[in-house]
Amino acid sequence: MNEEYDVIVLGTGLTECILSGIMSVNGKKVLHMDQNPYYGGESASITPLEDLYKRFKLPGQPPASMGRGRDWNVDLIPKFLMANGQLVKMLLYTEVTRYMDFKVIEGSFVYKGGGGIYKVPSTEAEALASSLMRLFEKRRFRKFLVYVANFDEKDPRSFEGVDPKKTSMRDVYKKFDLGQDVTDFTGHSLALYRTDDYLDQPCCDTINRIKLYSESLARYGKSPYLYPLYGLGELPQGFARLSAIYGGTYMLNKPIEEIIVQNGKVVGVKSEGEIARCKQLICDPSYVKDRVEKVGQGKYIAIVSTTVETKEPEKEIRPALELLEPIEQKFVSISDLFVPKDLGSESQIFISRAYDATTHFETTCDGIKGIYKRMTGCEFDFEEMKRKKNDIYGED
């Protein structure tokens, strides 16, 4: 292992595997190591079910009523892919889709306190049919969705008096006379914000988020979400294969003894007494505890997730748990949410953020693009990625 690499990657979470694949496609000599014996890190899929029981230290074996253990793939972090989102574009342009199969999630729903579960309306027809809103609200919401669909940042004629860089989203809602219930499910179920902070920020980002949801829904009709058939653990493995095709070297179950830094800059990684030298390092927070800070926790129970806000976090997801009854077994995990203390410009150590409580991978992709720019000095370009991929396959 006493070789020199352009980039060493520690950890096989989705962020690390995507960046490993991208750097390999860019012609970099990449060494990818993980102290775990499996792919995925925090975003792994656990199979068989017996391994999940062991991971959460549950006594005994899964009951026979749960079927064969190998029929289960349980994601440690539940997320979906937006059908028209950035991760799907990365998968398509790199042709990582050749290594996996996907299915469309059956529907997207919203829980309204005291009123049960409703299909999230995001098209004109669904808005008119939804029982979430009264008749006149439906008409106003329909006009709002038409406005969003026609909105184009490059065409001021589509603004209709709104300044996308200055007008707040609260004022846009007022423009269409949308009530509190409508704005709540629009902001949290279409734009997928976790807090109401967005209301007083410029409206451009929110409108684009709603457009992404609607355009993703339009691709397949049932919902805006896609999901790997055999679990999210397929995603990092797919990008690991991409890296290997371009010459990347992978080593699992490798204990990391030391990250070697000289004069404030990373120069290598020590494992089992050997040193692999590098110019840049990508890693998840677990490898550099002194370079990250804790800013919160995420709780993951089956497919129910939230950011911890109180001293009794399980109570925070009680409405969702009640909807899931009867529950045979709960697997409760609280993960610390780490973010890097610096951007890595001086040390050349680029640390990914822990996964947040969003339902999809858009924020993860933003983080990947941010690390890529800091490493290369260039914006991530989907088309350039596609051209480089085609070079090796000899495609037009």
Automatic annotation (TrEMBL):
GO CC, alphabetical: Golgi apparatus; membrane
Domain of life: Eukaryota
Cellular compartment(s): Cytoplasm; Golgi apparatus, trans-Golgi network; Membrane
GO biological process, one term: protein transport
Record-linked InterPro entries: FAD/NAD-bd_sf, GDP_dissociation_inhibitor, RabGDI
Molecular-function GO terms, alphabetical: GTPase activator activity; Rab GDP-dissociation inhibitor activity
Keyword Phosphoprotein carried by entry: yes
Keywords: Acetylation, Cytoplasm, Golgi apparatus, GTPase activation, Membrane, Phosphoprotein
Membrane topology, record value: Peripheral membrane protein
Sections of the chain in a coiled coil: none
Subunit: Interacts with RHOH. Interacts with the GDP-bound inactive forms of RAB3A, RAB3B, RAB3C, RAB5A, RAB5B, RAB5C, RAB8A, RAB8B, RAB10, RAB12, RAB35, and RAB43; binds RAB3D to a lesser extent. Interacts with DZIP1; this interaction negatively regulates the interaction of GDI2 with GDP-bound RAB8A.
Record's function text: GDP-dissociation inhibitor preventing the GDP to GTP exchange of most Rab proteins. By keeping these small GTPases in their inactive GDP-bound form regulates intracellular membrane trafficking. Negatively regulates protein transport to the cilium and ciliogenesis through the inhibition of RAB8A.
Family: Belongs to the Rab GDI family.
Name of the protein described by the UniProt record: Rab GDP dissociation inhibitor
Organism this protein belongs to: Myodes glareolus (Bank vole)
